[in-house]
Structures are given as structure tokens and as C-alpha cells.
User: Fold NADPH dehydrogenase from Geobacillus jurassicus.
Amino acid sequence: MNTMLFSPYTIRGLTLKNRIVMSPMCMYSCDTKDGAVRTWHKIHYPTRAVGQVGLIIVEATGVTPQGRISERDLGIWSDDHIAGLRELVGLVKEHGAAIGIQLAHAGRKSEVPGEIIAPSAIPFNESSRTPKEMTKADIEETVQAFQNGARRAKEAGFDVIEIHAAHGYLINEFLSPLSNRRQDEYGGSPENRYRFLGEVIDAVREVWDGPLFVRISASDYHPDGLTAKDYVPYAKRMKEQGVDLVDVSSGAVVPAAIDAYPGYQVPFAELIRREADIPTGAVGLITSGWQAEEILHNGRADLVFLARELLRNPYWPYAAARELGVKIEAPVQYERGWRF
Ligand SMILES: Cc1cc2nc3c(=O)[nH]c(=O)nc-3n(C[C@H](O)[C@H](O)[C@H](O)COP(=O)(O)O)c2cc1C
Assistant:
């Protein structure tokens, strides 16, 4: 049978062998606390490449030390990080997958000791620190840090860059009126709240001509927050700026109860794809081959991102192929186990 899940997908000149993406997942495994790639990363990511994932997106990687979620995050704030990342890229590519990296700044959700920064001096919840409201100089520096990160990602050989604008981290904090109360040109109207992301995209695009994804939180799950409809004009703007795909997640800008069920974020990806006419990625409780195929075949998204299922089973693509009755290439070493 001809499935979409196992058909190649080309985006800005990069051809993925299938439409299965490993969603970025923090491993909190830099025990040296310097952002450097460790043995864990060199085993964890290539294992999913052996498992036949088409595109692997490396976890949220800090563009500044203070922009990490924790001290154990990966980093890309120094040229010293390039060699380790290049080795990781080589290992993943050697085993047949494409590889991307998620460039991130945690903003007010950073748990790294010291000062934390955000668009406004509002803490995430009662138990979190109050961030410093960013000055114009802080904004400029942070945009520059994203650009430097992109340049280093290119030097390390990544195929894809994803900008993390979701889950209540710094860029999302600018976008949402719940966390952005600024009075200047970076706050207030929807256009002003987009300005920071717009500047980050332009800065990254100056040094990066490969596929560019942006991950968003399409719903704040709050009556005064953003909804997927609010993201349609934003996604149109992203497309004009040269973004190739919007990776549609949701939530976490403020504490909120989320009713999560299989495919709960897919309608957001579908709406943005249709209304903004831009490729989207669907993510969230996607666990079976037929579920993934339905999303693609009904034109609800262009790529499916899997997170926890790929922690449980790094060989999920093989299991999904079997479910859909598709024969996929197996690593020669595993052929006797993968034959059916
Ligand atoms: C251990 C873990 C770490 C995660 N880290 C990140 C991250 O670094 N960046 C990100 O955008 N999402 C992160 N997420 C969210 C996942 O990428 C994904 O969007 C979410 O888990 C829903 O997909 P799933 O139901 O397939 O797990 C993480 C999730 C898990 C379980």
C-alpha cells in the first residue's frame, strides 16, 4: 500500500525519507552543566535514526546560559559547543535520518540560578522567581544570541533549525498578552507582541538558508489568552518571512488544566495549514501508524511529530510500517528481526 507516512517529503531542498519526526525532548543530561553534548545524547539520538525516524529534532538548546530551562540543558551559546554537536549530527546522518535542532530561550521559566528575564516582570506562578523586564538592549542581545546559535547550528551541519516559540518560554511570553504587558513597541497590539519573534526569524534567516520551523503554542487555554485563530495571521507573517513549517503544539504560557486526548492538538495544525496556507506539523498523543496516516492523508498536517512514544519505542517507525503493511528498509544488522 502507498502510505503518506512512509512517502518522502521535500522541504526547502531537504528530502526526508518519511514523515515521522522525533519531537524535541529535553534530556537534562549535561551533567557537566556546560551545555556540551554527552555520551547520552550520542546514544539516544542515533538510536532513533536506526529506528528509521525521518527527521530527528534535538531538544531545546539554550542560545544563552541563562536561556536554559535547567543547568543540564544542551547549549549553543559558544563556539565551543560546535564540535560536540557536529559529532552528534554525523552519527545521526550516518544512520539515515535528517537532523534538526531546537533553538531556545526559557525566559521566565528558566530554573538556572541568577537573574531571569522576560517581556514583563510577571512570575509564571506563585512559586517561581519574578523576572526582570527586558530592556531594548536585552532584546537586541537575545535576538543576536538566536542568530549566533543558528550560525553555529549551520557550522555543526544540522539540516533543520526549529525556533522554540511555544510552551511559555521567552518568545511565547512575548506573543501572549497574559505574559506581555509592555507599553513599548514590543507589547500591546498583536503586531507588537509578534515583533520579537519577527526579529528572531529575520536574524536567523540572515545566516540560515535551510529549512526553518517554528514551534508555537496554538492555545493558551485561558479566556484572555491566545487561540489557534490568533495564530493564523502570525503564521501568514512567518511564511512571508521564510518560515517553512509551523510545528503546532499548545499551552504552558500560564498554568492551566489541559484536556489532552489522542490528537488533541491536530485541529490547531489543520486550521493553521488551511487558513495560513503553510505546511504544519502535528504533535501530541500520536501513537499509532493509522492515526498518523489519517492526519497526513486528510491534509491536516504535513509531518507528524512523536515524543513520548519514541521514548517508549525507538523502533516505532518499524512497528507503524508493519501496522500499515508497508515494507521499510531495515538496517542490515537487524534484517532477521525485522522481516515479516
Ligand atoms: C521528556 C520530554 C521533554 C520535552 N522537551 C521538549 C523540548 O525540549 N522542546 C519542546 O518543544 N517540547 C518538549 N517536549 C514536548 C514534546 O516535544 C511533545 O510536544 C509533547 O510531549 C507531546 O507529544 P507526545 O504526546 O508525542 O509526547 C518534551 C516532552 C517530554 C515528554
In short: The radius of gyration is 19 Å. The chain has a mean pLDDT of 97. The pocket of flavin mononucleotide is lined by residues 23-26, 59-60, 102, 164, 166-167, 215, 249, 283-286, 306-309 (CB under 6 Å).
